[in-house]
Amino acid sequence: MLKKFPRTSIINSMFYYIVTYGCQMNVHESEKIAGILHKDGHTACDTAEEADLIVFNTCCIRDNAEKRALGNIGALKQRKITQKNLIIAVLGCMTQQKGFAASMKEKYPYVDIILGANNLHLLPYYLKLNDRKNSLKIEDTDTYDINIPVDTFRTSYPNAWVNIMYGCNNFCSYCIVPYVRGREISRPPREIINEIKFLLDEGYKEITLLGQNVNSYLCEGYNFARLLSDISKIDKKFRLRFMTSHPKDFNKEIIDIIKSSENICNHIHLPVQSGSDRILKLMNRKYTSAHYIKLADAVYENIGGALISTDLMVGFPTETDGDFEDTLSLVKRCRFSQAFTFVYSPRSGTLSASMPDIDKETKKHRITELIKRQNAITKEISDTFRDKTAEILIENESDGIFTGRTTNGKLVSFKKSGSYKTGDFATVLISVSKSASLTGTILLDANLANK
Ligand code: SAH
Ligand code: SF4
Ligand code: F3S
Fold first, then answer.
1. Measuring from atom 3 of ligand 1, which residue has the nearest CA?
2. 285 CB under 6 A from ligand 1?
3. How much distance in Å is there from the Cα of 92 to the middle of ligand 3?
4. Binning pLDDT at 50, 70 and 90, where does residue 60 land?
5. What is the mean pLDDT of residues 408-416?
6. What domains does the chain contain, in order, with CATH numbers?
7. 211 lines ligand 3 (CB under 6 A)
C-alpha cells in the first residue's frame, strides 16, 4: 500500500524548509512562500535535515550569492539518492537569468521544480503536478503574476515588510535586478494602506515599505511623498521605514514629509555607490557626488537626529586610485552611520559586464581601506549616543537580553527588566558604544509609551 502511494501520503502534508538568499525583498518573499505552503497544508520544520521539501529562494546580485546557493543545492545530490521523496524547489532571482533553467536542469538534474521570482503562488500547483509524475521536472520562469494576494507567514514581528512596488527601471550598468525582476509596477495605494492598517490592528509596531527604488512609486495619482504622508497619518503609534531610496529621486518633498511626521523614522538608507563622478556616470546612476552631498546635507539639516546609511561599491571597471580617493572623501564628508560595502562582480547580460574588470588585489586593498575608514566613522557616531536616552522598539529577546533599534537605526542591546517584551517601546540609557552597536539599561520610570 505504502509502496503504491508513497508520494501522495507525504505530499498531503509535507515538512518544508526554506533557505533564503539576497535582499529584504527576498526575505519577505520567503514569508510569502511560507504562507502559500501553509495554506496548502504543509508545516515548517526547524532544519533542512527533517524536510520533505526544501525551497531555495535565490539571489544573483553578486557572484558569491549565486555560488552559495548553487553550493547548497549541489550538497543535496547524495541525499536525493537516499531520500527518494525529497522535493527540491529552486525559486527567486537566480532562475530568471537567461538560459539558467536549461543549465540547471543539465547540471543539477535532481532539482524537481524551477520557478521564477514572480510566480511563487504557483508552487502548490506544481507540487501537485510533481506528485502525479515523479520523474517530471517542472520549470516555469515566465509566468508573471506578482500582484496575486497571498497569505504571508510573517516572522519579523514587531516589524512587518510591505511591498509597495516591484521591479526596477533604472538599469544601473552593473546591476542584474532589472533583468530578473522586470519593470517597475506600483501597488495601488488603497491596497497598501489597507494592508498596513490590518497589520497595525494585528499588533505590528513597525512597517517597512519595500521596493528596489521606493522613491519612484507612482500609482493612481500618488507619488511616494503622498503615499508616505497618508500612511504616516494612520492614527496609531508605530514606526514607518522604507527602503531603498535612490539619490536621483529622493527629494525635498520627501524630506519635508519625514520632518513633519512623528511616525516616519529619521533614518534614510541612501545608496551612493561611488564618490567619483566619472564612475557614477559609467554606472548610469544619473547623479553627481555634489548632488548626493547636497541631499545628505538637506537630510541632516531638516530632519532632527537623522542618520544616513549607504551602499558602496569598489572595483568597478576602470576605477582608478583617484576615483577611489573620491569615494573615501565622500564617505568622510557624508558621515554615514553604516555602510554596506561590496566588491564589484560582473553580472552576465549587464552593460558593465563587457567592460574590463580590474585586478583582484586592487579590489581587495580598496575594500579593506574603505571598511577601515567607515568603521572609524561608525564608531564616532556610536559614541555620540553615550550617556543619552533613546526610545527603543524591542525587536528580539535572547537569553534575557533584548535588542532593538533607535528611530535613527542604531542597534542597542540591554538586559530584560520589568514586564517588557518584544514589541514594546522602552526608554533606554545608553552606556557603552561599540563600533556599530550600543549597550544600555531600561529606565523603568520613564517608560509610559506602552501603558
Ligand atoms: N535597489 C537597491 C538595491 C540594489 S542591490 C538600490 O538601488 O540601491 C544592493 C546593492 O548591491 C547595491 O546598492 C550595490 O551596491 C550592490 N550591487 C549591485 N550589483 C552589484 C554587482 N554587480 N557587484 C557588486 N555589488 C553590486
Ligand atoms: Fe539595481 Fe540600480 Fe535598480 Fe538598484 S536602482 S535595483 S542598483 S538597477
Ligand atoms: Fe538579489 Fe533579487 Fe534581491 S538579485 S538582491 S534577491 S532583487
1. 212
2. no
3. 8
4. very high
5. 97
6. 15-140 (3.40.50.12160), 156-265 (3.30.750.210), 389-449 (2.40.50.140)
7. no
